[in-house]
Protein: Bifunctional protein FolD
Organism: Tractidigestivibacter scatoligenes
Amino acid sequence: MKGAPVAKALTERLVPQVEELVSQGVRPTLAIVRVGEREDDLSYERGATKRADKVGLGLRKFVLPADCSQERLAGVIREVNEDASIHGCLLFRPLPKTLDEAAICALLDPAKDVDCITQGSLYGVFAGQPVGFPPCTAEAVVELLDYYQVPLEGAKVTVVGRSLVIGKPVSMMLQARNATVTMCHTRTRDLAAACRNADVVVAAAGHIGTVGAACASPQQVVVDVGINWDEKAGKLVGDVDFDSVEPVVRAITPVPGGVGSVTTAVLAKHVVEAAQRTVR
Ligand SMILES: Nc1nc(=O)c2c([nH]1)NC[C@@H]1CN(c3ccc(C(=O)N[C@@H](CCC(=O)O)C(=O)O)cc3)C=[N+]21
């Protein structure tokens, strides 16, 4: 299950909407805030830059060194908040450990929170209320499964990983679609069994090889959300051991070229929606 056709379908709907906004004098614009040079951040930035070009979004990049102070980063977020020509903000996470990530996230204007880093947006996802936007990657997983017509109603879905960025919110979104969701993590006793037993596995652990052949079963659909830098191979890989899992399962997403490309399309969609809200 490649991401490109899903992203293309999403993106095609956005182009006329951007044209309409531009004719009203508004160019939907995304601010990217990056601290340091993490490989996964740089990958997202490349993808988002290409997507913004295709859709016709404005893009402003704020890049700070990994050792920057809390005050300096806070200053950038305030600048984003005050700039009326910016409609959405993507702050790459995790931030370096020296920074207080929660305090930074709380500073962002909720109206510009296109990736669910503020508490109100998270509340929306957990309560099933239309407050803000869900995390782009979590929404991308659901978009991808819908595009490939993978049934969720009553399906057994195992989510591996419990982060606030992906594991927890995607679990809530899949449950909202009436899937029966099992949440697994580093302390799960028999991860392989919990995965083998599932119709759909969503791998969002953040570690290379978390989901291996023992987790796979025929008829299963595997969505790999992981973006890890493989030092030995010198390339980006997912959380799933693709070569051993792919021959067993019904369908699987590649990394790169899977969920990531859909994530950037969802991001563009959120920025367009945020801009539309400012003119209505
Ligand atoms: N607040 C926050 N939310 C995130 O969702 C988040 C984050 N921080 N920090 C970094 C990771 C990583 N991530 C990627 C998303 C898309 C691609 C993507 O577009 N990948 C292209 C390839 C792009 C390329 O490498 O040229 C693809 O898979 O085809 C990559 C990585 C989201 N993350």
Remarks:
- The domain at 136-259 is CATH 3.40.50.720 (Rossmann fold).
- Residues 259-279 form the longest helix (21 residues).
